[in-house]
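User: Predict the structure for this protein chain, please.
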Amino acid sequence: MPKTPLIEYASLAELYDAYCELFVAKSPIVSACGCQIHCREHHFVHVVKLFGEGRRPLHFPDEKAKIVAQTEGFGDYIHEARRAQRLLRFEKALREPDAVVRPAHLKTADRAWMRHVDCSQYPFMAALAQKEQGVLTLCSLQPLRARNMSKWMDGPILYPVVEDETAEATKAHQPPEGG
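Assistant: Here is the predicted structure, written as structure tokens:
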């Protein structure tokens, strides 16, 4: 499996631009499972787990101008670099998932697009979405270690790529419920 590169960025504005280019500009992202996932600007704060000074939660409309203006470094903002660096891998997980699952432990999102990637530290990517007003919208992204996969696969599998010879083969060719 070819390795998808990590993205490089030197400032918050540059990271925001990369997110918009990969997700917002291409929205809705059409997945191999048949779903369309809508990506909005305000999801950026959740996707890269962005916080203000002192881990203050952010309201995107209030912060957007400051984010775009932060062209050198990150100022008082903190983010989760392991998520930010893997934006290309998450985008691929949405487009070409190995599985779409409804993990029982999710609180905000109601399904996860799962993909195995060539990475020793975080070999699985989970792109999380929920249905809002009849539309699937991106919620967040989570790089995963192999030891955590059983929790993420604990729930109904909506889209398997690896098929049985019988019922699973038929199920794999159906778009996920509500997708």
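The helical segments are 12-24, 44-47, 60-69, 81-84, 87-95, 149-152, 167-172.
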